[in-house]
Design brief:
Oligomer: homodimer
Order of helices and strands of chain A: EHEEHHE
Shape of chain A: globular
Largest sheet of chain A: 4 strands, antiparallel
Largest interface: A-B, 35 and 35 residues
CATH topology of chain A: Alpha-Beta Plaits
Strand content of chain A: over 45%
Structural class of chain A: alpha+beta
Number of domains of chain A: 1
CATH architecture of chain A: 2-Layer Sandwich
Number of strands of chain A: 4
Number of helices of chain A: 3
Radius of gyration of chain A: 15 Å
Chain lengths: 105, 105
């Protein structure tokens, strides 16, 4: 499994607007091969920003990479950049491979 | 839902040892109230380290916080610090609340 994260330093006071951009958009992920689950995460508050992360679980890194060059990806990101700046700098991308999994038992 | 992450900057060349510490330890998580799933994640390679993250999904922040003061937590971390340094600095903790969830459909 593979986890794709993007970290966003959202400007203090813009948290609700940032959440609305995500929760009101069309998602084009549900039927993408290899897509398992997506979470938008709200993290700790810092002096000048609140950390958010988008967090997507994929069956494999290869299927994630195939999606990034697909029409579904283009549609999902069509609106990006069209809003007033809600976060500092650029989102920071990090891809993770799953080494170990433990489930409640 | 609540996600607890710890980020580790593992020294280049120590990645296999770091993974072994995690995969060979006793886990005391399975039966902890509110625990859902745990992943050890291997992230991008940087010049002086490879990023790893431990990533635990909890039913609520309150159940995570209850665990951090429990006997199970003490047991799980008993061995921490006993190994030669495998990572730079201290692990960086970040807690996240789930804002939005989308599942494959």
């Amino acid at each position: 499994m593979f986890i794709a994260m993007n970290r966003f330093k959202v400007i203090r006071g813009s948290e609700a607007d940032f959440e609305t951009v995500w929760t009101s958009r069309d998602t084009h992920l549900r039927d993408v091969p290899g897509f398992i689950t997506f979470h938008l995460l709200r993290g700790p508050e810092r002096e000048d920003h609140t950390l958010f992360a988008s967090h997507t679980l994929w069956a494999s890194r290869a299927e994630f990479e195939a999606w990034t060059t697909s029409e579904a990806f283009r549609l999902a990101h069509r609106g990006a950049g069209g809003n007033k700046p809600l976060y500092l700098g650029h989102p920071e991308f990090e891809g993770f491979d799953v080494v170990q999994e433990i489930n409640a038992g």
